[in-house]
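Complex 263.
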Amino acid sequence: MTPPFASLILDVADQIATVTINRPDKLNALNRAVIEELGAAFTSLASQPEVRAVIVTGAGRAFVAGADIAEIATAASSPAGLQAVAAHGSAVFTQIERFAKPVIAAVNGFALGGGCELALACHVRVASTHAKFGLPEARLGLIPGYGGTQRLPRLIGQGRALQMILTGDQVDAETAARYGIVHEVVSPEMLTEAARSLAKSMLKNGPLALAHAIAAVTGGAGLPLEAALALEAEHFGAVGRTEDMREGTAAFLEKRAPTFRGV
Ligand code: COA
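Predicted structure with coenzyme A bound:
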């Protein structure tokens, strides 16, 4: 599957790709086709050297209002059942989490269920004051299936995560910021600019350093501390063998701005 997509808008400007989930009449609910397109979009962006960061956002008044409930209801009675649905969505979200370039969620509205989980799979999150976060699956007799029961407690602690999962209540952007789900809350008009400015502040740094930092953080998260520290040392060693590292340290010592080439 290659662009153009039916339910995504892909746009690249100034080395930053924006992936807009574009199914506004269904509040960007994630059906199988959207998940497949998301996976294909990230596969395509991985091989575009001119793209150095990605912003994920939603068209209209929602970021993503969850997995497509109509499709979930049908899939539950299929032979593979919901486990296959979860495996498919989770694989794509893990692809996003492990993406070697920074991925920023610009949360413009409802980020519920799979939408909240999509935002959690991104590396950082900025939100507009209109954003609402929640994992309402239990209200449907379900549980989060695209990583929510694992990524949310790792990010904000088990107690608060269970509070959100067991009540199914939505929290507003300010509360999400207080919980540590979101790093910045801005007016709706400023959301794109805030996400782009965050991306630009990352792009000043060496692309290989960014890739190794993401791999160390996301790869180490599930490991015991000793193994995670060994993984960090491996990545530290690997960046140490790059031209970018030599350029970055030389530029500091020569009191000039570095020019990173990603080698
Ligand atoms: N799956 C499928 N369709 C969805 C959807 C979802 N997760 N979320 C919203 N939609 C659809 C609605 O069915 C409606 O479609 P219709 O116009 O064809 O009837 C359309 O999007 C607009 O949603 P609506 O409910 O009318 O908007 P609202 O402003 O009254 O409510 C929400 C907004 C987000 C509170 C409400 O849509 C909602 O609760 N959505 C489900 C959230 C959820 O449980 N997510 C987890 C899924 S596992």
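The chain has two domains: 8-203, 207-253.
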